Amino acid sequence: MQMIVKAELVFDDGSVEQVRLASFEREEADLSVRSLGLTLDDGKQLLRRTQQCLSESQAAAWLKQRSICPCGWSYPHKDSRTISVGTVFGLVKLPSPRWYRCLCEAHFFGRQPTWSPLPERLPQRFTPELELLVAAAAAEQPYARAVESLCAVLPVEDCISISGAKNRVRAVAAELDEAGAEDGYPPRRVRQPPASRRARSMAIDSVSTLYCGDM
Q: Is the Cβ–Cβ distance between 9 and 16 less than 8 Å?
């Protein structure tokens, strides 16, 4: 038995595009609790593929609308690269074309400058939703455990790491401090650890050394 999951993308101009998201196979003669329905890995695969398909279609539709200069000429295509954005349903990779500036936008004649509209539109490589989940999980448990628990239920293995979780928590804390300062709240006081009373160094003069040597 095979189940094929398909979807339809209906655009604003009325065009429809069918995409195949995933397929799952099951043996008809094999029925057990382990093989019943979708597994966790199957669900993560479906979410990852759905997120990639929808995000890629959104980016392509947005780029298509902005591929023409206001003067009416299409931007000449130079090359294409890829940008990655971490989301709650996986790391999405989006084709990012690089175009030449239109001659009407250039302030000089000669070599035309290039630009990439997609990185300018998506300057952050981490969605706020995923940032909130990482910060909430890392605030209640160790960073390694927080990353492990999120990766167990969501397809975010390529999106988060232990060091990344630390940076996310610090970034959220900094944003909260800035928001509190704008609202008139005093900044947080960082509690300094008490100074240790243990001796960190000791000097011995030559008299003591000679005295100990004679003993």
A: yes
Q: What is the pLDDT of residues 36-81, one digit of tens each?
A: 888 999 999 999 999 999 999 999 999 998 888 888 888 888 889 9
Residue 124 has pLDDT above 80, yes or no: yes
Predicted TM-score (pTM) of the model is: 0.72
CA distance 144 to 168: 13
DSSP strands (E only) in 34-100? 77-87, 90-100
Task: Provide CB contacts within 8 A for 137, sequence distance 6+.
Answer: 146, 147, 149, 150, 165
* Dist CA 32 CA 147 (whole Å): 31
CA terminus-to-terminus distance, the chain: 91
pLDDT digit string (tens) for 93-119? 999 999 888 777 666 555 668 889 999
Task: With CA atoms as reference, report the closest residue to 129 among 150, 113, 148, 152.
Answer: 150
> DSSP of 126-146, one letter per residue?
B-HHHHHHHHHHHHHS-HHHH
Find the angle CA(5)-CA(81)-CA(124) to the nearest 5 degrees: 80
Determine how β-strand 114-115 pairs with β-strand 2-10. unpaired
pLDDT at 173 over 80: no
How many Å apart are CA 69 and CA 205, to the nearest integer? 82
The answer to whether 95 touches 80, Cβ cutoff 8 Å, is yes
Distance CA 36, CA 26 (A): 9
Phi, psi angles (nearest 5°) of residue 186: -70, 150
Question: 99-112: buried (b, 16+ CB within 10 Å) or exposed (e) per residue?
Answer: bbebeeeeeeeeeb
